[in-house]
């Protein structure tokens, strides 16, 4: 609220610096604070919750003071080099994907049959999406629209294109179940920026500018549980970048739980 109030003032330039938990990185030759054990401890801590080294905070403050950074600056140590986080996230993905495959295989089979019986066309919908580092991959979902619907972003499609069963599947998010296969393949994670179509050039450009494609896309994400869909490319990319900056195992678990509890309405179609 304070940030929005300052931004509304004329002739007042603001820079908002958001900090994770601040720590002082272990130094060589500093006794108990140095060495492999200390570094491993901090790797574990930062994998669970976002943290930032005090030197990074200082650098960001200096950058803001000299006008080299604008808007909101999120101070958090990058997880790209955190082997504990990378291992933990992949392990979490595989464990959840295995659990879904074992315990919800009956639901997947029933939904497959229901889709085939209630509308013409295949039950599984395969579509090209943009993944990590801009790589194109094939994403699998239960078909929720009538066969022959044009290839476009959901917010550009009329709601009449959605089948009655598809509307329920999208509302309950059960249409995402086949993406478990994408998780096993390593195309996506359970949590991350939602993958877009290759034709969504504006969103791709906004995400590239904010380095969102440095991480794997996800079935659900921070933007989705805050009801931000792909109809607002710039705003969506900002929230995706916020997730990238603050990603941690705890945040991933939290986003998954909120999704299961019904947070987020999914991408909206055009009303008839």
The gist of it:
The chain has 11 helices and 8 strands. By secondary structure, it is an alpha/beta fold. A hairpin with a 5-residue loop joins strand 5 (124-130) and strand 6 (136-142).
What would your notes on this structure say?
The protein is of the alpha/beta class and 272 residues long. It has two domains: 77 residues, no CATH class; 193 residues, no CATH class. Strands 1-4 form a two-stranded parallel sheet. Strands 2-3 form a two-stranded parallel sheet. Strand 5 and strand 6 form a beta hairpin. The model has no long low-confidence stretch (mean pLDDT 87). It comes from Allosphingosinicella humi.
Please outline the helices and strands:
Elements: H1 2-7, E1 15-19, E2 21-23, H2 35-48, E3 51-53, H3 54-65, E4 71-75, H4 83-103, H5 105-118, E5 124-130, E6 136-142, H6 164-172, H7 180-185, E7 189-191, H8 201-209, E8 218-220, H9 222-225, H10 233-246, H11 249-260
Parallel strand pairs: 1-4, 2-3, 7-8
Antiparallel strand pairs: 5-6
Helix pairs in contact: 2-4, 8-10
